[in-house]
Design a protein that fits this description.
Blueprint: H1 10-23, E1 33-35, E2 58-61, E3 64-69, E4 75-77, E5 87-88, E6 102-104, E7 107-109, E8 115-118, E9 124-125, E10 127-129, E11 138-144, E12 152-153, E13 158-160, E14 175-181, E15 188-194
Parallel strand pairs: 1-2, 7-10, 8-11, 9-12, 13-15
Antiparallel strand pairs: 2-3, 3-4, 4-5, 6-7, 11-14, 14-15
Length: 198
Amino acid sequence: MGTFANGESGSSVRTKINAAIEKTEGTSAISTIDVDGGAIDGVTIGTNSAVTDLRVDNIKVDGNTISSTDTNGNVTIDPNGTGITAITGPVKPTTYRETVGTESSGTLDLSTGNVFSHAPSTNVTYVFSNPPSSGTAFGFTLKVSPSATITQTWPASVDWAGGSAPTATASGETDIFTFYTQDGGTTYYGFQSGNAMA
């Protein structure tokens, strides 16, 4: 095992790290791990029991702190170690941008996004493919703008508000539909959220 920049041998560093990690099997936490100018190998985590709770308060690379945890458990991440905080505390996005998915001849691939647009010129039978597995909630929006008078056939798995599907979207109009499932697509709850928008 090599020598670190501060002159300390690798085996000595390994001994200290082992001791620090093993402390996490009790009530103490590792306060700082600082690796600078060397490689660590052969590190083991005890021999008698597994670590069940590991909290690292500070992580440093080349002396720059890239992650720290305060007494309230809020994590500050600075990937460049330059003092610019990338993430602090709970994640609260200021904008939310949804992904436009792929539609092909009325088939909506739900694995590609959650917003779809369709401009049919003939009758269309909609298919919802690749929903998330059961236990994962998923909602999506479909904008329909026909260029001709059409009929719309929806999957039998759609449970419409009021018990029946809306009237087909008229030529030249735009209707907005929203759908929601949490059982892998066994049932979609469907709503016409916009009628004759244009």
